[in-house]
Design goal:
Elements lengths: L1 H19 L13 E8 L2 E5 L2 H13 L1 H5 L1 H16 L14 H15 L11 H4 L8 H17 L4 H12 L2 H4 L8
Antiparallel strand pairs: 1-2
The protein binds protoporphyrin IX containing FE.
């Protein structure tokens, strides 16, 4: 029993240490991070190579659509509300018949957070791969999804200027989601 308790405590401490581990590579410059130059964002500590990198990181966060929307709590609430709308819309709900919606909500939260400037990695499928098995997908479906996102943000009282900017980011995924050749710039 005593051994079991010790094993539990060691495992727990190792897990806690792993979660708290400071990044060793500066997220701005890619150089080795100095553990004495740090900032805390949404409860996570980030280390930087130089003071200038920390300043840039903080300025990038302040300018990000992610932070202007209200960060993690706001994105989580928006995605939950968004899918309640999608799942009762006859134009698009059938696409999600066999989809694990808990997983989908989680992936969408991470993707949107990342795309809107959160300091996180998106490790899901890229947009072309994610929708490659939905060959019937067309502009009308994409427009319906964008419409629900707009209605969601309006319902959450996000200002129109910010909504326009968020929708512009979502619009950049259209050709990939619809599996069309990318337009030349
Ligand atoms: C508007 C832009 C869109 C974005 C940003 C987006 C984003 C995503 C993301 C992040 C995933 C998860 C990828 C993964 O599994 O790693 C996903 C999957 C999926 N999306 Fe979208 N999506 C968009 C449009 C659409 C549209 C228009 C539809 C259909 C009406 C759709 C239907 C689906 C379905 C059914 C899946 C699940 C595929 C599977 O699990 O096999 N998406 N999407």
């Amino acid at each position: 029993m005593k051994k079991l308790v010790i094993l539990f405590l060691v495992t727990f401490s190792l897990q806690a240490m792993a979660q708290d581990a400071l990044n060793t590579v500066c997220p701005i410059s890619g150089k080795p991070a100095n553990p004495n130059i740090t900032t805390v964002y949404e409860g996570k500590t980030f280390a930087f190579a130089e003071e200038a990198c920390r300043k840039k990181f903080e300025a990038d966060r302040a300018a990000s659509l992610y932070q202007q929307l209200g960060g993690k709590a706001a994105i989580d609430a928006a995605v939950d509300l968004f899918y309640t709308k999608v799942l009762v819309d006859d134009r698009v709900k059938h696409f999600f018949d066999d989809v694990n919606m808990d997983r989908q909500r989680r992936k969408q939260k991470t993707f949107l957070s990342f795309a809107l400037g959160a300091p996180i990695k998106y490790e899901g499928k890229d947009m072309r791969t994610a929708h490659a098995n939905l060959p019937d997908l067309n502009d009308s479906h994409f427009n319906a999804i964008a419409e629900h996102l707009k209605a969601t943000l309006e319902e959450l009282k996000v200002n129109q200027d910010l909504i326009t900017k968020v929708l512009a980011v979502v619009e950049t995924t259209r050709d990939d989601v619809l599996n069309r050749p990318k337009k030349a710039n």
